[in-house]
Amino acid sequence: MRYIVYGAGSIGGVIAARLFEQGSDVVLIARGDHLAAIQHSGLTIESPLGSVTLPVRAAEHPSEIAFQPSTDIVLLATKTQDSAQALDELRRAAGPEIPVLCLQNGVESARIALRRFERVAGAMTLFSSSHLKAGVVQSFYAPVSGVVDVGRFPGGEDPFVGRAALDLRRAGFDSELRPDILRWQYGKLLENLKNALQALCGPEADYKDLFVELRMEAEACYRAAGIAYASESEMRNRASVLNPGRINGVGRLGDSSWQSLARATGSIETDFLNGEIVLLGRLHGVPTPVNAGLQNLANRFARERRPPGSLSVDDVRQLLRPSSSNSG
Question: Who contacts 79 (Cβ-Cβ below 8 Å, separation ≥6)?
C-alpha cells in the first residue's frame, strides 16, 4: 500500500514519518515553507528518543500525483476548516474511488469526505505533537507515538481500514479497529472543547470551571440528540498506553489550536469543536452560550492573528459569562 498524507502538520507529519521509517511507501502533500524545506532537506521528526531526517517525497498539490485507487490510501490531516477545498482537489485528481481516512479532531471531516468519496473512514487520535518550524515535526510520546483508532464511517467494515490499522501498529502507534468510531470521536470531542481556552489563556492557565461548563453543555446536547459517546474512564484508559516526554528538555508548548495562533495562520478549528456543540444545541433546542461565546472569541483572535495566551482566565470569564445568562 502507498500512503498519501494530505497535510504535513503535527499529526500528518508524525504519521508520515513513522510510516516511512517502518518501510511504507509515503507521499506527503504540503505547502509553503514547510513543503520547500521537506523537498530540499527531508522531513525531520524529533522525539524524546532522538531526531531523524527522512527523505519523504512531497508534493504541493494532488494533481502532481498519479493515484492508484487499488493500492493508495489517502490520510487526510489538514485542519477541518480546510477539508472541503482539499477534498475537492483530491477528487479532481484521484476520482471518487480513492479510499480516504480522516484524521482530524471532531466529527465533521468524514461527513465532508463522504459527500465526495465512496470509501471513507474516521479516526480517534491521541497525540502530543507539534509543528512550529518548517520541515520539522515533533512527537512527545515515546515509545508509542500516539493512538490512532480507526473505523469505517459511519460504521461497518472495509479492508482498507484494517490494513491501515496494521501498518500504523507496525509504525509504532497503538491502533484499534472501531466499528463504533463515531462514539469514540464524540468522546474525544468533549476533551477538545478546552482547546480554545488553552489557545487564548495559555497551557498553564487554570480554566477548570469553564471547561466544566463547556462539557455540561455538550453532554446536554448529546442527551437531547441521542448521541452515544465514550466515557471519561474509557478515554483515560485509552490514553494509558502513552508516555509523555520532553525534547531537548522542553515539553510540548500547546495543542493544535494553540499552535494555530502561534503560527498566525488566520484560522482555528474551533468551529468544528465548540461549534459542533453549538450546532447540536441549535438543532435540539439546548442552550450552549459558553461554547458559542468561546467559538466567537477564538475565531476573532485567529482572524486578528493575536498570539496565544493573550488573555487571562478572568478576562475570558468576563467575556463569556455575561453571554451565558442569555439563551441564544
Answer: 7, 9, 104, 256, 260, 267, 269
Question: Within 10 Å of residue 25's Cβ, how many Cβ atoms?
Answer: 13
Rounded Cα gap, residues 2 and 5, in angstroms: 10
Question: What does the H/E/C string look like for 1-20?
Answer: CEEEEECCCHHHHHHHHHHH
Cell numbers describing residue 246: 520532553
As given in the structure block, the three cell numbers for residue 326 are: 442569555
For the segment 155-172, what is each residue's pLDDT rounded down to a tens digit? 888 999 999 999 999 999
Identify the residue whose cell numbers are 489563556: 201
Write the CB contacts of 58 (distance below 8 Å, at least 6 apart in sequence): 8, 27, 28, 29, 30, 35, 38, 39, 43
pTM, rounded to two decimals: 0.93
Residue type at 225 in one-letter notation: A
Q: Name the average pLDDT for the chain.
A: 94
Domains identified in the chain and CATH numbers: 2-179 (3.40.50.720), 184-324 (1.10.1040.10)
- pLDDT recorded at residue 328: 38
